[in-house]
Write a structure and sequence with these properties.
This protein folds into two domains: 69 residues, Winged helix-like DNA-binding domain superfamily/Winged helix DNA-binding domain (Arc Repressor Mutant, subunit A); 133 residues, Up-down Bundle (Four Helix Bundle (Hemerythrin (Met), subunit A)), CATH 1.20.120.530. It is built from eleven helices and two strands. The chain has a two-stranded antiparallel ribbon. α1 crosses α3, α2 packs across α3 and α5 crosses α7.
């Protein structure tokens, strides 16, 4: 029987970590700033000191802050942040991300995903192909304006990474999936998608199904470049 119960509410320390994380990556709190002390912050937020400590540990694990005895908790420089952490990506897109960061994200994907698609064409199993096919059906059924369609889009890209048969590539699945979801959602904030990207995904799928490594690499490169064009980002000064 399907479980229709809603997902559990996030724990309070996760909620506080998200709040602070959004403020940090959004520039409200800046590198070098010192956060309030544990007692003051927990009282202001109306939470226990333990919950606040746990929130700070989450942020520290992602490289956003560091705590030192007698010096307090300081926001670290951006070059120490784990920018590929799925939570940091989500927090970044909660606000108005720097257009150059979006370009950088797509450049990273252009390094990873075309190669993964080529490997997938050489190594994919029937089960891998079935997962991609099912994901395409979800994208077609719901569209990328719908959360379910975006989830299917994530599944498609993750399935390709899994089909590449390379463990380090597979480990990037959560990062790539988060980038796929948030960039797609971001470009629909003010308008509908300028075109239907489903045919681009189908061409990648067809090349992988045909075991055409060069075709898979080429069609994935085309997909990513068109997706970046769809963002209609301002020119870099």
């Amino acid at each position: 029987m399907d479980d229709d119960r809603p997902p559990p509410a996030p724990r309070i320390h996760g909620t506080i970590a998200r709040k602070l994380g959004i403020e940090i990556v959004g520039g409200i709190r800046r590198p070098g700033d010192i956060l309030d002390g544990e007692i003051e912050a927990s009282e202001e937020l109306g939470i226990s000191r333990t919950a606040y400590r746990e929130a700070i540990r989450i942020l520290a694990a992602k490289g956003l802050v560091e705590s030192r005895p007698k010096a307090g908790t300081r926001i670290t420089s951006r070059n120490r942040w784990n920018l590929l952490d799925p939570d940091i990506l989500a927090w970044t897109f909660e606000g108005e991300p720097d257009p150059q960061f979006i370009v950088d994200l797509f450049e990273l994907r252009e390094v990873i995903e075309p190669a993964a698609a080529a490997f997938a064409a050489q190594r994919r199993s029937d089960q891998d192909l079935a997962e991609m096919t099912d994901a395409l059906k979800g994208m077609e059924a719901f569209g990328l304006a719908d959360e379910r369609g975006r989830a299917a889009d994530q599944r498609f890209h993750r399935a390709i990474l899994a089909a590449a048969g390379n463990e380090p590539l597979t480990a990037l699945a959560s990062t790539v999936g988060a980038a796929v979801s948030w960039t797609t959602k971001f470009k629909q904030r003010r308008r509908n998608l300028p075109r239907d990207p489903l045919p681009d995904h189908r061409r990648v799928h067809e090349a992988i199904a045909a075991k055409d490594a060069d075709g898979a690499r080429r069609t994935m490169t085309d997909l990513l470049r068109l997706a970046l064009t769809d963002m209609e980002l301002p020119e870099r000064e």
